Input
Amino acid sequence: MVTDLVQTSYASESAPAGDNEDRFRAGENWALVLDGAGRYPGRTGGCVHPVTWIVEHLADHLAYKLTVHDRETLPYILAAAIRATMADHGPTCDLSDPLSPGAAVAILRTRGDLVEWLVLADCAVVVEDAAGKHTVVIDDRVDHLPDAPVVDAEVRTYDPDYVATVRNRPGGFWVASTVPEAAGEALMGQAPLTEIRQALLCSDGVTRLVERHGWTWQAMFAVANDEGPQALIDEVRRADGDHPRVRHWRGKIHDDATAALCRFTGPEG
Ligand SMILES: [Zn+2]
Output
């Protein structure tokens, strides 16, 4: 049996003065990052549970299935983890509510001589090949919804009534909450293990260094390797602090931030 195909180091930190709704888990051949997709203003989403409860249950179910059901496809595993989390809610929650809280997902694993990844909603997987070229997997469907009405509040966002019509619906956007079919809509990819050097899994609290603050993925990998993933989060906090107080698009001033650096030792170790 091959062990430690993926060596993962990670850091995760809540936004200042908040509960961390990101989660990280890793096994010998996989790693995952979740980012809680919380409630819309004034809406319960039909659920009595805090978002931390939802990401914790989803992370545990994913970790178990990635370990035990390792011959299944990533969408199969994610759909099964969504179903298991739905069962955990119990009768207190209305799982048919289209605004049910859930999570964004990034999973990476090795299977045989392949590296595979899956991304759903606001998490990212970035894979660096042996030549230093980056494959960036970001699911930005929520930013390209047709004719979406925008609500101008402290954070510019969508009207919840509109979101209810496009969330976990074909032509809309998908998130891991109470619709197992969302797993089949995730962004997927794979590459030969021998061609991949390393990968980063990030919640959008970290990818904002690239998307908002002008960093390159090359610089992200360099900092993660030289100083560790916590240094990326420190850089996010510094960059957010330096940023003019603009009203962010769908983003808070600060956000929970998680970064995981995966290095591949290869079948020969
Ligand atoms: Zn619930």
User: Anything to note?
Assistant: The first strand starts at residue 6 and ends at 13. The helical segments are 51-68, 74-89, 160-166, 204-211, 217-227, 229-242. The chain has one domain: 6-264.
